[in-house]
Amino acid sequence: MAKLLLLLASFSGFTGVALGAFGAHGLRDKLPENLLNAFQTGVQYQLWHTAALMGIALLLLRWPESTLFKVSGGLLVLGILLFSGSLYAMALSGIGRLGIITPFGGLSFLLAWLCLGAGVWRHL
């Protein structure tokens, strides 16, 4: 599981940087400010949670059987897909209704952080 999460983190880091550059250079003059801000928020959350995903993967190298760390990593991946993905889709398509997905990603992030904390409490 640690290897999978590290691979997903590397992919997410790569795409986060690429999307950040695309937003800063390719979308700056093409999107209204509110949609560009939504896109940039997606990038920021993706990159911050990618770093957390790497940390969880490293914890799994030490505690490979930790269900809490595994669940936390899975929830971070889901959160990145739902939260950042919905913001990207909304910004690029202009379909504001896609924003209804975003809170589910935020909830995944919150649950991931709770599982991480519970795992740290249990194992450290």
Task: Describe this entry's structure for a reader.
By secondary structure, the chain is mostly helical. It has one domain (2-123). The chain is built from 4 helices and no strands. The chain has helices spanning 2-26, 33-62, 67-93, 102-123. The longest helix is centred in the middle third of the chain and has 30 residues, at 33-62. It is elongated, with a radius of gyration of 15 Å. It starts with a helix and ends with a helix.
Keyphrases for this structure?
124 residues; mainly alpha; 4 helices; 84% helix; DUF423; DUF423 domain-containing protein
Entry summary:
The chain has 124 residues and is mostly helical. The chain contains four helices and no strands. The protein has one domain (2-123).
